[in-house]
Write a sequence for this structure.
């Protein structure tokens, strides 16, 4: 009986206790943005009980009735609320940068808990500039990321992107770029559709991508639909483009007079001439008539295209708690500077999401893009522009529609004819991408994801070169006679390529949180397979140039085709641990396999680990006295190993036969195949190990500072060690070389508000130094002007050390003998080894084009309805080698050239310190690789000015518009540089064969409905 009574009392007590406990659920949001706060701690006051919010800011917890909850998250003020069954809690931000969620490899993390070197850019950072290719938006925004644009050509103006220096000699040096987790091009996505871009720079953040992470990783996350009805946006801009820099040329009279000077210097005959004085006098006294007297400005005649660019973008965000959609439609049309040069792109992006229930949801991406790049068929725009810069003004240009002069050239090639009437080269690339991801949450702490993606693209290149007619003046009849068509033969070539890339992924993430500890474990597997099929054909001699179809060509029939495949597979994992938001640890690892390497020799698989740790010492009790000055302070360090499987060949471990090696046998020429390259079956990926130490500070509630120092060592670099010629094969690829990059990065942002003026200013400064450390069995790698050797930066300039000009015959006689017979006004070179003669043994390293001290400043100001962005970017130290047409007077190599206005400052006895040596009909020995042609190309460029006005709400309400912003902007307004006038310091190894970078003036409108 006592036992029954006791059991009854216990049951009654348990029932009574349960009656005092309630199950609560809630959501925590940001008080400014109204977005979910991920990973916020929810603790029951006075107990050790608590939980944290999930990816949607939601939480659930069983608490005693009447309990008080303490809600905290880095970057927000703490909040205390009474526990009720359904809560909506708003946190007030105290430092937004700390509370941000940052996209990292295969997941997200709170910025405050990052232990790697990561830079995230939001869409607001990217939309201040209006460009044709999205990759240009990265320039100057992320420390340690070098972005240099080498061309302004429409559709081909993508810059070179390097993260923390250069990572290989002959293999890929580009970072891995993923858009919504799929390998792609950054230029495949319109900037209006981007939510964020994250740059992963050190081993801690990139090792989870294993064999493709050695050069850094760029993660692009596109926008997703919302949950609050429908929102529509329309963004449009129109841009006028013009060249930033074009060299100034000499006039026809100057060309003739200076040609005579060069001829006299060459022959030593003071009476020698190319153009008679009578002709020069006629040109001086007679206005150009396009019949007998010519003074053509070829550049002005050529750069006649509108240079207009327009972009239209429509976005739709729609959704509810169950389903959402983000849609983006964009159209870009960019006209070039020369005729028949343009680029247009259409893209459609659909990002639908479906939440089936509390445990299962689907997120997907559907994308279509088609781009068309158009150029003249008669020559590349760069080559046509080089001719326009290099041709003499005395050459006949154009006499009328379809009537071209011979440009003063024996081959009759005319850049105007090439640009306007030589036919078209068109490259059209439609591409499709589909991705679907199922995310299953069986229990709150566990998330399982499975996804599949397939991208297909089909480049089609069609080049039909037509003839154009060349005429010559008939002075007697004051008319023009047809001479011949150029080039005399028309030709059509077409090529098609079919490309597939299929990716599969499966991963699981387990998260554990209590009031002191937070741990997250990620494990996953991924595979990728790529296939390429190509086909091409060509013919010439088309009777009717209006019918450019292969079957109508009569001669030179040819065709080609090929195929290749590759595959990648990887298993990855990451462990994150944080104790009291003070002590942080992250361990990454990936076991990767690549089809590029030999399975038989166990070279296909490799393991790439990393570890990083951080200490938020501002959370320590001993630091509390400084909290009013330093609100957040963290030190972090990382170390890891990365891979580079982007070797020059798809199958470097296997012998492949090359076609075209025909042989003669039995009185017949037979089609033959041959092995032309030696093979190293042990070829494997290059490796990079990186150490990084960094600090993050938040000071005075408005100033944030991030600084990093790193050492990046690259080993097993693939190179070819020379072998004896009698072997009859090209050398095999061997993992031999080593290289090192050492650098530092500093970024500082200050935000403040003075009355109605809000402003923020961000400054970025970074530096990296490259050095080759080992080239076993090879004293150096010689590439002409460029040489790589131990102890020097990769591909440094190599040549003679210039020490001024020879000023007299007496100086020549008293100087070391040179490898040529000099004359006064020639460049003088140093006898570095002191043997009394200047020859190849006196060559040395004379510079390199690695940028040093890259910097930028980005300022945003807003007052009332007005906002202003100012962005400048530059390089503190950079060397650039100039040569060829435009750099050297009277030099072209493949046409009869002139010279530029800067060349008028040439050596004479009366001008001994001139900019250029004595004039010669060709550059001759003065064009020898030497320090004379290495010029300082440091620069500062005002990259962007954007002034906007937000239409008053009263006006937009009347118009039925949610908001409207009108803006004007300009890019590349001016450049400060000691580099040569007319040449752009951003373009490396300058010759006149370039497409100038673009200065733009834009008007745009952003509408939201």
């Amino acid at each position: 009986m006592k036992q029954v009574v006791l059991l009854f009392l216990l049951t009654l007590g348990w029932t009574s206790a349960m009656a005092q406990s309630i199950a609560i659920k809630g959501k925590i949001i940001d008080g400014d943005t109204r977005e979910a706060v991920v990973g916020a701690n929810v603790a029951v006051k006075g107990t050790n009980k608590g939980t944290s919010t999930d990816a949607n800011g939601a939480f659930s917890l069983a608490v005693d009735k009447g309990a008080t909850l303490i809600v905290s998250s880095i970057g927000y003020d703490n909040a205390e609320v009474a526990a009720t069954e359904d809560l909506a809690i708003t946190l007030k931000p105290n430092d937004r940068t700390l509370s941000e969620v940052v996209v990292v490899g295969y997941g997200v993390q709170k910025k405050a808990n990052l232990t790697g070197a990561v830079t995230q850019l939001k869409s607001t950072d990217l939309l201040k500039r209006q460009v044709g290719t999205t990759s240009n938006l990265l320039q100057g925004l992320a420390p340690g990321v070098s972005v240099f644009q080498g061309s302004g050509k429409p559709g081909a103006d993508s810059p070179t992107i390097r993260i923390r220096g250069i990572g290989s000699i002959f293999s890929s040096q580009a970072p891995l770029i993923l858009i919504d987790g799929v390998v792609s091009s950054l230029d495949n996505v319109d900037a209006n559709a981007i939510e964020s871009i994250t740059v992963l720079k050190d081993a801690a953040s990139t090792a989870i991508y294993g064999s493709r992470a050695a050069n850094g990783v760029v993660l692009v996350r596109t926008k997703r639909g919302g949950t609050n009805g429908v929102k529509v946006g329309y963004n449009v801009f129109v841009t006028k483009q013009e060249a930033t820099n074009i060299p100034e040329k000499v006039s026809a009279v100057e060309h003739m007079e200076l040609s005579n000077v060069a001829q006299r210097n060459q022959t030593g005959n003071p009476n020698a001439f190319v153009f008679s004085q009578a002709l020069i006098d006629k040109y001086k006294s007679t206005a150009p008539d396009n019949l007998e007297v010519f003074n053509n400005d070829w550049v002005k005649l050529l750069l006649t295209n509108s240079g207009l660019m327009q972009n239209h973008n429509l976005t739709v965000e729609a959704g509810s708690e169950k389903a959402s959609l983000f849609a983006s439609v964009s159209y870009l049309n960019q006209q070039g500077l020369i005729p028949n040069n343009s680029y247009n792109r259409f893209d459609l992006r659909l990002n639908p999401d479906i939440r089936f229930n509390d445990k299962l949801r689907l997120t997907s991406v559907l994308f279509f893009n088609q781009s068309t790049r158009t150029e003249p068929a008669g020559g590349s725009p760069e080559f046509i522009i080089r001719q326009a810069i290099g041709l003499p003004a005395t050459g006949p240009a154009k006499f009328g529609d379809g009537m071209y002069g011979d440009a003063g050239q024996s081959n009759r090639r005319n850049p105007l004819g090439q640009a306007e009437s030589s036919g078209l080269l068109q490259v059209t690339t439609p591409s499709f991408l589909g991705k679907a991801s199922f995310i299953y949450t069986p229990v709150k702490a566990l998330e399982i994801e499975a996804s599949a993606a397939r991208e297909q693209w089909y480049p089609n290149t069609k080049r039909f070169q037509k003839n154009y007619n060349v005429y010559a003046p008939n002075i007697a009849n004051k008319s023009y006679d047809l001479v011949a068509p150029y080039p005399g033969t028309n030709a059509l070539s077409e090529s098609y390529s079919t490309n597939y890339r299929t990716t599969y992924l499966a991963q699981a993430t387990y998260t554990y949180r209590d009031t002191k500890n937070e741990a997250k474990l990620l494990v996953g597997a991924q595979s990728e397979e790529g296939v390429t099929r190509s086909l091409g054909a060509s013919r010439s001699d088309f009777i009717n140039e209006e019918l450019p179809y292969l079957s109508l060509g009569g001669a030179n029939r040819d065709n080609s085709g090929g195929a290749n495949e590759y595959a990648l597979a990887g298993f990855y994992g990451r462990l994150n641990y944080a104790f009291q938001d003070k002590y942080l640890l992250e361990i990454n690892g990936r076991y990767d396999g690549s089809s590029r390497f030999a399975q038989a020799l166990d070279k296909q698989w490799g393991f790439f680990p990393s570890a990083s740790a951080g200490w938020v010492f501002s959370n320590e009790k001993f630091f509390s006295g400084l909290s009013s000055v330093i609100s957040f302070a963290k030190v972090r360090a990382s170390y890891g190993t990365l891979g580079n499987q982007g070797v020059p060949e798809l199958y470097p471990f296997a012998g492949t036969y090359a076609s075209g090696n025909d042989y003669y046998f039995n009185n017949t020429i037979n089609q033959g195949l041959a092995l032309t390259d030696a093979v190293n079956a042990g070829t494997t990926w290059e490796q990079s190990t990186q150490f990084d130490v960094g600090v993050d500070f938040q000071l005075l509630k408005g100033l944030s500072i991030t600084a990093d120092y790193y050492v990046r060592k690259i080993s097993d670099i693939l190179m070819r060690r020379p072998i004896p010629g009698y072997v009859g094969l090209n050398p095999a690829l061997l993992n031999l070389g080593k290289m090192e990059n050492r650098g530092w990065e500093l970024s500082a942002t200050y935000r403040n508000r003075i009355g109605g003026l809000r402003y923020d200013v961000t400054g970025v400064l970074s530096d990296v130094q490259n050095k080759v450390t080992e080239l076993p069995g090879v004293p150096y790698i010689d590439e002409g002007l460029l040489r790589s050797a131990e102890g020097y930066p990769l591909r440094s300039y190599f040549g003679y050390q210039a020490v001024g000009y020879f000023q007299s015959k007496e100086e020549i006689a008293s100087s070391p003998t040179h490898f040529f017979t000099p004359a006064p006004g020639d460049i003088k070179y140093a006898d570095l080894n002191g043997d009394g003669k200047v020859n190849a043994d006196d060559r040395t390293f004379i510079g390199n084009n690695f940028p040093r001290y890259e910097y930028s400043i980005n300022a945003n100001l807003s007052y009332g309805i007005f906002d202003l962005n100012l962005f400048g970017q530059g390089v503190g130290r950079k060397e650039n080698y100039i040569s060829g047409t435009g750099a050297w007077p009277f030099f072209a190599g493949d046409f009869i050239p002139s010279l530029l206005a800067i060349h008028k400052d040439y050596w004479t006895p009366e001008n001994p310190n001139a900019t250029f040596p004595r004039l010669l009909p060709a550059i001759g020995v003065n064009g020898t690789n030497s320090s004379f042609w290495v010029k300082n190309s440091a620069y500062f460029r005002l990259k962007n000015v954007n002034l906007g006005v937000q239409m008053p709400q009263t006006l937009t309400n009347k118009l039925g518009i949610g908001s409207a912003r009108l803006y004007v902007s300009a890019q590349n307004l001016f450049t400060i540089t000691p580099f040569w006038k007319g040449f752009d310091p951003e373009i490396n190894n300058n010759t006149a064969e370039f497409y100038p970078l673009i200065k733009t003036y834009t008007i745009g409108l952003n509408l939201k409905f």
